[in-house]
Design a protein that fits this description.
Phage portal protein, XkdM-like_sf, mainly beta, DUF2001, 8% helix, Pnp Oxidase, Chain A, globular
């Protein structure tokens, strides 16, 4: 069977969970793994070679401002030294695509920063962008590879 337009997945058909609790106020979410590489010069070659030596997990989540959760996390770190690590799970499940469900679980997620106050006279809905790092991930459920 050939690829069809209906197989594409709607970005609105997703959910995000923090420690098993759905974060319904999520707007956008992105997690990336970047490989760390060292340059290796090889005698007789003009092009530089590259050796993968590790990986780094980073991401960004944008939430509608409906809670003080991230302000409180930063306040707890600044005042008490508490720096919690979390598990996040992103789920894509567009029933109309026929591609199945994808679950990506991120482990040891640590939030890097949070906007502690913000006002915007031109905004219809306030948002907060929260960058993070993570130390491991898994793919417990994946989309179909065949059409």
């Amino acid at each position: 069977m050939a690829f069809k337009a209906q197989n594409t997945i709607s970005g609105k058909e997703g959910r995000l969970f923090l420690e098993g609790e759905e974060l319904a106020f999520i707007k956008t979410f992105e997690a990336n793994v970047e490989k760390n590489k060292s340059e290796v010069n090889v005698m007789g070659r003009r092009m530089t070679g590259h050796k993968t030596t590790g990986a780094n997990g980073t991401g960004t989540a944008t939430f509608y401002k409906v809670t003080s959760r991230f302000v409180q996390l930063m306040l707890n770190y600044v005042k008490k030294g508490e720096d919690p690590y979390f598990t996040l799970q992103a789920v894509i499940d567009d029933k109309s695509s026929g591609r199945g469900t994808e679950r990506v679980t991120l482990f040891d997620v640590n939030f890097d920063s949070a906007k502690i106050a913000g006002l915007d006279v031109d905004s219809e809905a306030l948002e907060e962008e929260v960058p993070f790092t993570f130390e491991d991930f898994d793919l417990p459920e994946k989309l179909k590879n065949t059409f």
